[in-house]
Specification:
The structure holds 2 protein chains of 2 kinds.
Chain A: H1 2-15, H2 17-52, E1 61-65, H3 77-82, E2 87-103, E3 112-119, H4 142-146, E4 150-153, H5 154-160, E5 167-172, E6 175-185, E7 193-196, H6 197-204, E8 211-216, H7 222-232, E9 236-239, H8 241-251, H9 253-284, H10 286-294, H11 299-344, H12 356-382, H13 386-390, H14 401-427, H15 432-435, H16 440-452, H17 454-465, H18 473-483, H19 485-523, E10 528-531, H20 546-553, E11 558-571, E12 574-581, H21 601-606, E13 610-613, H22 614-620, E14 627-629, E15 644-651, E16 660-664, H23 665-671, E17 688-693, H24 699-709, E18 715-718, H25 719-762, H26 764-772, H27 777-819, H28 829-856, H29 860-865
Parallel strand pairs in A: 3-7, 4-6, 12-16, 13-15
Antiparallel strand pairs in A: 1-8, 1-9, 2-3, 2-5, 2-8, 4-7, 5-6, 10-17, 10-18, 11-12, 11-17, 13-16, 14-15
Chain B: H1 6-29, E1 62-73, E2 78-89, E3 106-116, E4 122-130, E5 136-138, E6 145-150, E7 158-164, E8 167-174, E9 179-186, E10 192-193, E11 199-201, E12 208-225, E13 228-243, E14 251-261, E15 266-274, E16 279-287, E17 293-295, E18 300-307, H2 311-314, E19 323-331, E20 340-346, E21 352-353, E22 366-375, E23 383-389
Antiparallel strand pairs in B: 1-2, 1-13, 2-3, 3-4, 5-6, 6-7, 7-8, 8-9, 9-12, 10-12, 11-12, 12-13, 14-15, 14-23, 15-16, 16-17, 18-19, 19-20, 20-22, 21-22, 22-23
The chains are: A alpha+beta, B mainly beta.
């Protein structure tokens, strides 16, 4: 059978290479889309794992601060945790992510960046130096280690040309010192360095721990111990590694699901294309199959052989798709990495890893999609009697009238039902239908429903306008398409899905962009913004130098200034940004787009209230007037535990889906003591300054001067530039979405071209007869262009409707539910109209492929058919 | 219990040994090659001053307070106990860069044992921390606290040694192991100085410690074993050494005897071995009933029995030797003193201190246990005591202890 399949595949390729190349390309593109999205998703998860890395073997709990900042766990927490019943070991950890180790000497090798852990090796075995320390070889010098030496992976030491007890220079940030190599470990290339915790803190320049890793006694309930730790040590939480990972994965689940759904759509569209190509292949080889059947091949045998051929298409498609997907993911890596780092506060994605299981997944979905697309056609073809198959002519025998009616009726009814379901969800965003599967069930229903409707749509159109196709060859082609929904339905379905995606995503992106732009215009009221928002992401933000702040405040053009302090905290497992601002400034309330009335909000803020963002309010189920515990804060004595504050306003925030909240700076300084010297600046560190210039000041000139004079690590932008930059980041984030959208459309157009080409072959005798009766080559071809135009128009109508539905679902259900953002619906009509023209044009262009074939069909083809 | 980092698991075994090897080497060995020069070595003619010298000596790299004894409870249980605190130097000179609460010059380690000599039930516990706030600290004379260190993980109370009104107060607890020691020890004799006026040579190359003992102390208090607390009275012995390190490179372990004899005399004896088992150095002190201390350098010790740890315990120690489990000790006659022969045998066979599966800290097994003394010749006394045997499961050298 395999030989038969291979032989069949080869024959097909020889007879018509396009029939193999096109489905292989489509499947390859679909598999590439799935693979690249999977690679990016996994890379994002790997970056999450990187931030979860444990230093201690067998750690059951991690104790971390509710404030996300280096050294935020107080040193006193370690002895306190150590004394909690049920704890078997507690290992404090200081993490120095960007240490540079440089050899000393005149001919020194280049410096090596290294993650260095500050650990405590005194308290016992509950800390690891990495792999393979071979005690017998004397590859460690304990005295040197405890005197501040560095344990280096052997690979790093080799790169530095350093041996045991050699001096090296160790630098972290602006601090550095000499240290000796105190141990060589055999960890893999990704291995980290180690130093004693006291010296790690010294290198960082401040006390405090990053976390404490805890091992529990056998049989102890982790939740009980975690609660005891949280009760004894204010401002921290104890959490298992598994929960941490779940929290992290949940953090950008919507982001990953979005990409996965789009890539799956590409594959779905590819399956339609396979369906069209298999149909074409069966037309070509109808007699051959009939011959096999006449010679005794069973239906099952033919069925299996044909499926095997299709599976080969899937395999070859996967083979092409895997490298393509990897390249695509590599190209998109920077954008996704920026999203993950900026929006989710995770470690930076460094690289992609094509693992065997991801490759296997790509192969599986490619073969699966190919088989899914081909199943119906192959089943129908293998079920035909040999006599039917051997009948003269090129058409595949039509199924019986009854079967045809059912085949038209069932998808139509099912599609209508699914669209109704999606419509109900869109009209009632809070209803069960909308909430099923987080809104994605309704979205999928809209797409599948749209895919099932074209045949019924063609039937309806035929009833409405008739199918005689009078007039020009173009309209005769339109009529023919209406008459033959069997041949037109599959490509129309594929194009419909692609159009629906195109419309849905374009309208969502348009709505989002408009909402964002309006929000930015409303809230960016200061003239110039200076901030330390670096490439390292918000969690690594360093405060501005007090001298810089003083210089900004005393600039002659500056009339007023707001000093912003930023501090990420953990609230129910998610990073939430706490900001401190000065509520007493003029026009202070204008900085926010409140969901309800803005009156009194700034007074409330000054009186100790908080403003929270809409995503945070949605997630926590809070509203104005409710009380909020401020995680990681220290309530003023005599109260114990975190401070509690009333919510005095809820504002829109499209910059952070995890949420943000604002406090009065002075109050923030009391609740969250920084521990960092802020110089003469009141109320703690400053991470950003919003400058309000005097009337008449030249904003551009002042901005340019500040950019020149301030350190290069600071960002300086006037409000217009900041708005443009925010929109650019938005566009960058949406670029991957757009890419996948275009991919789906490209595959659909390929499918359409293939279907029409098949049709042209099927209709060769008919075309030949018409040519013999005097039809010109142009007229013969124009019919197929007409068919393409009809399919394009049908896809536009049905896909446009389904796309509108999808837009409503995305804007009204998915976004509020997953991201907590309420968006204003905005139809980018010009862009959609442009897309419509493109679809029609590409529909007709697809018809040109078939038209070319038809126009070459001469009267001699008529002879060949009889 | 989840495993957070499988890759780390492979590595930590060796890394764990790293510290154990380092600390115990610091404590026991401080062998040649380590930069001990910055620490104050043992001093000849040391100007002893009590009670001041019961407190820590900051410039000593290594010092310990070794308490052992037996308590008889009101219900007739005989409980042997050990309470030892070690202080070992990490950095002789504090480094200004390490501006951190965890910057420590010393590490502190504690060992505690309670054993029921009738049932054989025995629990060993240990703690080890850097000397830092919340983890442990050496007190300053005349504060009553001599040393305190945080208890084992999961235990709220510290392990501590205090001296108040001439009485030592020992506190140790391990909540997980259901073991606790709360004892007072009152000296009944003045300190006995070993070697030359407390300068105790350990190796021909100059290795030595400043060494004294308090023998026959009156013990009283509570011991908890298996969650059951017994109150009673008994006896105790304290050994106290400090210096910068005293083993020679070829010395791999020792046998140490602390025996209280029925005739009122006390005997301290140690034998340092080489890797091949041969005797490297030996010395001893016989404290007469009238508190006169005499050196007994020529004691002859013969092993009469051995004990091998079960294979399930010692399976990783390919080079393990059987522990001696019976001795014939002959103290030759000197001057007016008659010779005596003592037969010494353990009161329990398995009195090995080894780390339990739930415990952290170094895993350096050694045998430390209560013994009885029988007369080995007519006129020789009987008695009780403690014996310590090191370097049998693993040689007590830096290299073999794990590579640090």
């Amino acid at each position: 059978m395999i030989r038969l399949a291979l032989h069949g595949s080869w024959r097909r390729f020889r007879a018509s290479p396009a029939l193999t190349v096109l489905p292989v390309t489509a499947i390859g593109l679909g598999a590439a889309a799935v693979l690249s999205v999977q690679l990016l998703n996994r890379a994002a998860l790997a970056s999450l794992d990187a931030s979860l890395e444990a230093v201690s073997p067998g750690a059951d709990l991690r104790v971390e601060s509710l404030v996300v900042a280096p050294g935020a766990v107080p040193d006193s927490a370690w002895p306190a945790v150590l004394r909690v019943p049920g704890v078997a070991a507690a290992a404090p950890v200081v993490r120095l992510p960007e240490v540079v180790v440089a050899p000393l000497g005149p001919e020194a090798a280049p410096a090596v960046p290294l993650l260095v852990w500050g650990v405590d090796l005194i308290s016992g075995r509950f800390a690891s130096l990495g792999d393979g320390e071979d005690g017998a070889g004397g590859h460690a010098a304990p005295d040197a280690f405890f005197a501040g030496g560095l344990a280096l992976p052997r690979s790093v030491a080799d790169a530095l040309g350093a041996r045991l007890l050699d001096p090296v220079r160790v630098v972290s940030g602006d601090r550095g010192r000499e240290a000796v190599v105190a141990a060589l470990t055999d960890a893999d290339g990704g291995g980290a360095g180690f130093m004693d915790i006291a010296f790690a803190q010294g290198l960082r320049g401040r006390s405090g721990l990053d976390r404490i890793e805890v091992r529990l006694r056998e049989g102890v309930d982790p939740d009980v111990v975690a609660a005891a730790i949280a009760a004894r040590v204010p401002g921290v939480r104890a959490i298992s590694g598994a929960t941490l990972r779940e929290e992290g994965a949940d953090l950008f689940a919507a982001f990953r699901l979005n990409l996965t759904a789009l890539s799956a759509v590409s594959l779905l569209v590819a399956a339609f294309l396979v369906s069209a190509s298999v149909r074409a292949m069966l037309v070509l080889r109808r007699r051959e199959i009939g011959l096999y059947r006449a010679l005794g091949a069973s239906r099952e045998g033919v069925f299996r052989a044909l499926l095997l051929e299709v599976a080969l298409i899937g395999l070859v498609g996967a083979a092409a798709g895997i490298p393509l997907g990897f390249l695509g993911a590599s190209a998109a890596l920077d954008q996704v990495a920026a999203t993950v780092t900026n929006f989710y506060l995770l470690e930076r994605i460094e690289s992609l890893r094509l693992t065997p299981e991801v490759a296997a997944l790509a192969i599986l979905v490619a073969v699966g999609a190919a088989l899914l697309g081909a199943l119906g056609e192959v089943f129908a073809a293998s079920g035909r009697a040999p006599a039917e198959l051997l009948r003269p002519g090129r058409r595949m025998p039509a199924p019986s009238a009854r079967a045809t009616r059912w085949r038209r009726l069932i998808p139509g009814v099912a599609g209508g039902g699914l669209l109704l379901f999606a419509g109900a969800a869109a009209l009632h965003p809070e209803g069960d239908a909308a909430l099923l599967g987080g809104g994605f069930a309704a979205g999928a229903a809209a797409l599948v429903g749209a895919a099932l409707l074209p045949r019924a749509g063609l039937a309806l159109a035929r009833r409405a306008v008739g199918s005689r196709g009078r007039g020009t060859a173009f309209f005769r082609g339109v009529g023919a398409a209406l008459r033959e929904p069997g041949s037109t339905g599959a490509p129309a379905a594929a194009l419909t899905v692609a159009v629906a995606i195109l419309v849905g995503v374009a309208a969502l992106v348009g709505s989002f962009r408009e909402t964002l732009d309006a929000w930015l215009r409303q809230t960016l009221v200061a003239d110039i913004y200076v901030s330390s928002f670096g490439a390292r992401g918000p969690s690594r933000r360093e405060p501005l130098d007090p001298a810089t702040v003083d210089a900004l405040l005393s600039a002659p053009e500056v009339m007023n200034a707001d000093l912003l302090r930023a501090l990420p905290v953990r609230m129910e497992g998610r990073p939430v940004q706490v900001f401190g601002i000065r509520p007493a400034l003029p026009r202070a309330a204008e900085r926010f787009a409140f969901l309800d009335k803005p009156e009194g909000t700034m007074d409330g803020l000054a009186a100790g209230g908080v403003l929270i963002s809409e995503p945070l309010a949605r997630r926590l189920g809070l509203a104005r007037g409710d009380l909020l515990d401020l995680p990681g804060s220290r309530a003023p004595p005599p109260a114990a535990g975190p401070a509690r504050a009333p919510i005095v306003g809820v504002f829109r925030d499209y910059g952070n889906e995890a949420g943000s909240l604002f406090l009065d700076r002075a109050r923030m300084a009391r609740l969250y003591p920084s521990g960092v010297e802020a110089g003469g600046v009141p109320d703690g560190p400053v991470h950003g300054v919003a400058l309000y210039l005097r009337p008449g000041a030249d904003v551009a000139a002042v901005s340019a001067r500040l950019a020149r004079e301030l350190p290069a690590t600071l960002g300086v932008a006037d409000n217009e530039r900041l708005r443009r930059r925010a929109l650019r980041v938005f566009d960058q984030t949406m670029a991957v979405t757009g890419l996948l959208e275009v991919l789906a459309l490209a595959i659909a157009v390929l499918g359409l071209a293939l279907s029409l080409w098949t049709l042209a072959r099927e209709r060769a005798a008919e075309t030949a007869l018409l040519r013999a009766l005097g039809e010109s080559r142009f007229e013969a071809g124009a019919g197929f262009v007409g068919r393409g135009a009809l399919i394009g128009a049908l896809a536009l109508v049905l896909g446009g409707g389904a796309g509108a539905l999808l837009t409503l679902l995305l804007v009204r259900v998915v976004n509020p539910l997953w991201f907590g953002w309420s968006l204003e619906l905005h139809w980018p009509l010009a862009s959609l109209a442009g897309d419509g023209v493109v679809v029609l044009v590409v529909g007709m262009a697809a018809g040109l492929v078939a038209a070319r074939l038809a126009s070459r069909t001469g009267a001699s083809a008529l002879v060949a058919e009889v | 219990m989840g495993a957070a980092c499988p890759d780390c698991r492979r590595g930590f075994l060796l890394a764990g040994f790293a510290l154990g090897g380092f600390l115990l080497c610091g404590v026991f060995a401080a062998r040649a090659g380590q930069p001990a020069r910055e620490w104050q070595p043992a001093v000849r003619d040391y100007p002893w001053s009590f009670p001041r010298d019961h407190w820590a000596h900051d410039r000593s790299r290594t010092e310990w307070w070794y308490f052992v004894g037996v308590l008889e409870t009101r219900h007739g249980r005989e409980l042997a106990w050990q309470f030892t605190l070690f202080r070992t130097g990490l950095i002789a000179t504090p480094t200004p860069e390490a501006a951190s609460p965890w910057a420590a010059r010393h590490a502190l380690m504690g060992h505690a044992v309670v054993a029921d000599l009738d049932s054989g039930e025995r629990v060993f516990s240990q703690v080890v921390h850097r000397e830092a706030p919340g983890l442990g600290a050496a007190g300053r004379f005349p504060e009553p606290e001599i040393l305190a260190v945080a208890g084992p993980a999961g235990t709220a109370s510290d392990w501590s040694l205090r001296l108040e009104d001439g009485t030592f107060r020992l506190r140790a607890a391990d909540r997980g192991a259901e073991m606790a020691i709360r004892l007072t020890l009152t000296p009944t004799r003045p300190p006995v100085f070993h070697g030359e006026a407390g300068y105790s040579e350990k190796s021909p190359g100059g290795g030595a410690s400043n060494y004294y003992s308090l023998t026959r102390m009156e013990a009283a208090g509570e011991l908890t074993l298996g969650g059951v607390t017994g109150t009673g009275r008994g006896w105790g012995w304290m050994d106290r050494e400090f210096g910068a390190g005293w083993l020679a490179p070829d010395q791999t372990g020792w046998d140490w005897f602390a025996l209280s004899l029925d005739d009122g005399r006390d005997l301290m004896l140690y034998l340092l071995r080489r890797e091949d088992g041969s005797l490297s150095h030996a010395d001893g002190t016989l404290l007469e009933a009238d508190h006169t201390a005499l050196r007994v350098p020529g004691a002859r010790v013969e092993v009469t029995d051995t004990w091998t740890p079960p294979r399930r315990i010692a399976r990783n120690d390919e080079a393990a030797r059987p522990y001696p489990a019976g001795w014939r000790i002959e103290i030759p006659a000197a001057g007016a003193r008659h010779s005596m022969v003592l037969q010494v045998r353990p009161l329990l066979a398995d009195q090995e201190n080894r780390r339990g599966p739930d415990q952290t800290g170094p895993d350096i097994p050694y045998w430390e246990g209560a013994v009885e003394v029988l007369p080995g010749s007519p006129g020789s006394p009987a008695g009780v005591g403690f014996v310590e045997l090191t370097g049998y499961r693993r040689p007590m050298t830096l290299r073999a202890l794990g590579g640090w």
